[in-house]
């Protein structure tokens, strides 16, 4: 497959190596807080963004990229793939699909597929890793799409957040779950529900037990990890990300483990200390 390109929304927390492989471009979300607009691109200072969220009593809001913003990037290659945040969590997937349709009308010969990751952050990155593997194995476009879609249907995403405020205030999880977690010092281990939405998977008492249990849960999901990449994204929490990597290397046979920092939108929801895993 020649002249391929990755065009995704900025919740896909791409590593420099994968960005180089795909000539990848992240089309930025915009985020609004205290009447200040933040663009989720390389110019965003994540430390400043975190500090602004901590200092504000307001709830940050986000807006997905327009179809034309995606379309501008899709015009640059003959084969385009996208790994989008779950369509149940954002309009970015639909926006990218509208862009695909626009480009196909202009250039019918282009091959474009937009994947709904049914996840976010680490999950989107795990989809990109599978996509890379298919291309490196020499698969054609249609086979690649089939293999990646099959991967998405069987992918697992889990996350642990130190601060649940943004998820709760934006209606992404129950206030009751958040209250119980805060009142009883319980740390929810959250997961995807298989359809792109968030569910409570389990509760653990305290962060140490939660992250230890998370590694156990990874082992309970599969019997063979040899064809899987473990992706870990984190917001200012290298310690726990490295703990998960070290334990996974000792206990499982992942062919690869990747750690990446969260960008602006992922940071908005994960907050300081949040860790997301997908495989």
Summarize this structure briefly:
The protein has 279 residues and is α/β, with parallel strands linked by helices. It has helices spanning 16-22, 46-55, 67-74, 92-106, 122-136, 141-154, 165-169, 175-183, 207-221, 238-251, 264-270, and strands spanning 4-9, 25-27, 30-33, 36-39, 61-63, 79-84, 111-116, 157-160, 186-192, 198-205, 229-234, 256-261, 275-278.
Give structural notes:
The chain is an alpha/beta fold. It has two domains: 4-154, 3-Layer(aba) Sandwich (Rossmann fold); 157-278, Hypothetical Protein Tm841, Chain: A,domain 3. Helix content is 43%, strand content 24%. The chain is built from eleven helices and 13 strands. A hairpin with a 2-residue loop joins β3 (30-33) and β4 (36-39). α5 packs antiparallel against α6 and α9 packs parallel to α10 (238-251). The protein is globular and about 55 Å long.
List keywords for this structure.
Rossmann fold, 279 residues, 24% strand, Hypothetical Protein Tm841, Chain: A,domain 3, 2 domains, alpha/beta
Secondary-structure blueprint:
Layout: E1 4-9, H1 16-22, E2 25-27, E3 30-33, E4 36-39, H2 46-55, E5 61-63, H3 67-74, E6 79-84, H4 92-106, E7 111-116, H5 122-136, H6 141-154, E8 157-160, H7 165-169, H8 175-183, E9 186-192, E10 198-205, H9 207-221, E11 229-234, H10 238-251, E12 256-261, H11 264-270, E13 275-278
Parallel strand pairs: 1-2, 1-6, 6-7, 11-12
Antiparallel strand pairs: 3-4, 3-5, 8-9, 8-13, 9-10, 11-13
Helix pairs in contact: 3-4, 5-6, 9-10
């Amino acid at each position: 497959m020649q002249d391929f390109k990755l065009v995704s929304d900025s919740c896909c927390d791409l590593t420099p190596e994968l960005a180089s492989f795909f000539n990848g471009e992240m089309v930025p979300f915009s985020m609004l807080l205290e009447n200040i607009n933040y663009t989720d691109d390389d110019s965003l200072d994540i430390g400043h963004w975190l500090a602004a969220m901590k200092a504000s009593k307001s709830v940050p809001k986000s807006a997905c990229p327009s179809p034309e913003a995606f379309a501008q990037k899709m015009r640059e290659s003959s084969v385009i793939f996208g790994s989008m945040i779950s369509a149940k969590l954002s309009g970015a997937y639909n926006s990218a699909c509208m862009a695909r349709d626009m480009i196909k009308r202009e250039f019918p010969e282009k091959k474009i597929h937009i994947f709904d990751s049914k996840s976010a952050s680490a999950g989107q990155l795990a989809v990109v890793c599978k996509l890379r593997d298919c291309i490196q194995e020499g698969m054609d476009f249609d086979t690649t799409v089939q293999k990646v879609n099959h991967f998405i249907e069987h992918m697992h995403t889990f996350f642990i957040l130190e601060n649940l405020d943004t998820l709760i205030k934006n209606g992404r999880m129950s206030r009751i779950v958040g209250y119980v977690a805060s009142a009883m010092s319980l740390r929810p281990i959250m997961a995807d529900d298989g359809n792109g939405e968030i569910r409570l998977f389990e509760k653990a008492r305290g962060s140490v037990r939660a992250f230890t249990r998370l590694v156990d849960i990874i082992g309970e999901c599969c019997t063979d990890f040899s064809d899987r990449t473990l992706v870990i994204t984190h917001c200012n929490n290298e310690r726990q990300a490295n703990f998960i990597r070290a334990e996974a290397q000792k206990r499982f046979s992942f062919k690869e483990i990747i750690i990446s920092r969260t960008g602006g939108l992922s940071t908005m929801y994960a907050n300081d200390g949040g860790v997301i895993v997908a495989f």
